[in-house]
Design goal:
Elements: H1 14-20, H2 24-36, H3 40-49, E1 54-55, H4 56-63, H5 67-79, E2 83-88, E3 91-96, H6 100-113
Length: 119
C-alpha cells in the first residue's frame, strides 16, 4: 500500500497504520458479514448452525419462524459466506461455513452474549 500523504502529522503510528490498513475488498467482506448478523433472526440461525447441521424445517422449529422466512435468512447468510449447504435427497442441510471469519464471529457472539460454547 502506498503511504498516504497526510496533511497533518499527529502520531508516530501513522506509517504503521498505513501499512496495516486492510484493503477495501476485505473491509467490504467483513462489513457484509457483520451486517447480516445485525439481524436478530439471522444471528440466532447462524449461532445454531455453528453447533449443528440442520434442514430448513428444523431451523424453523428451533427459531419459531416459518420455513419461507428461514429460507430467506439462509440465502442472505450464504451470500455473506457465513453458511454453506448440501443437498441430501430432497432436503438441503445447512451449517456454518468452515472459515476463519465464521469461526471468529461464532466465538465473538458467544463471548459477548456470555453463552458457553457447546461444541
Amino acid at each position: 500500500m502506498n503511504e498516504p500523504s497526510l496533511p497533518h502529522h499527529h502520531c508516530d503510528k501513522e506509517r504503521s497504520l498505513a501499512e496495516c490498513m486492510p484493503d477495501i475488498e476485505t473491509v467490504r467482506t467483513v462489513a457484509e458479514a457483520m451486517k447480516q448478523l445485525g439481524d436478530p433472526s439471522r444471528l440466532r440461525i447462524f449461532w445454531l448452525l455453528c453447533h449443528c447441521e440442520e434442514c430448513v424445517v428444523n431451523i424453523a422449529a428451533f427459531t419459531g419462524m416459518s420455513s419461507p422466512a428461514v429460507s430467506h435468512h439462509l440465502r442472505l447468510l450464504k451470500q455473506a459466506g457465513l453458511v454453506t449447504s448440501q443437498r441430501r435427497g430432497k432436503e438441503m442441510y445447512y451449517r456454518s461455513a468452515d472459515t476463519p471469519m465464521a469461526d471468529k464471529l461464532h466465538h465473538t457472539i458467544e463471548e459477548i452474549a456470555l453463552i458457553p460454547c457447546i461444541r
